Amino acid sequence: MSAPQPGPPSGSLPEPLPGAVGLSHISAYDWLATDGVCGGSPHIHLACTEAYVVTAGEGAVQTLTPEGFTETPLEPGTIAWFTPGTVHRMVNGRDLRVTVLMQNSGLPEAGDAVFTFPPEILADPARYAEAAALPAREGPEAEAATRRRRDLAVEGYLVLRAALRAGDADPLRAFHEAAARLVAPKVALWRERWREGPLAAAEATGRHLDALARADGSHLAEAAVRSAGPTRQAGYGMCGRRQEYELPGTTLPRTSG
Asked: Sign of torsion, CA 175 178 183 184?
């Protein structure tokens, strides 16, 4: 039997991954933050559920919700996932490597992810954009900018965490409100990406089910195999060095993971 032939070049594949999810591989940062913890930039997603599939090493994911602070251990075989609004911070214990599955492929890259920067930065879209941006070219400047961005997010995160530990969820609610205001102008683009990706995939399943209920399997004649390799190795993401795949719906500026 001959091996399956690769599909079209990455970025032009006609079908998304199952469920139109996004996928990347993360090597967690080993940079110490001000609180003595190694790891990435705390942030939330406003419309997407994210899942970690741990493939190597050990660490944890620290999360903040209105229910409080939680630290979930991560080791090979662990799957951890969190819904929109969950502040999450990847912590590197020892060579932590994670495969990230992201709902609504394309939305995080379009700005669905928001850092836990201090309130005065979240209140100003221009200041937020400046604080979140990284140089186009990778190298020492990009690493330094990523560290500054991480440290600024940790600064805001530690305030939120301290308040929750004291039983006060108001700062977290204020952060949620500020994040929603910040991304509101982007929602029209998100809706377009959602319709072209996840919604289109779900609707296709509905059409297939309707056809199968009539014993019509004509869509099976369109069976196809696709493959793609990484298109960016070790880019600077939110949580760590990021191996990326440019698949349908993920060809927007890279800001997640």
From this structure: positive
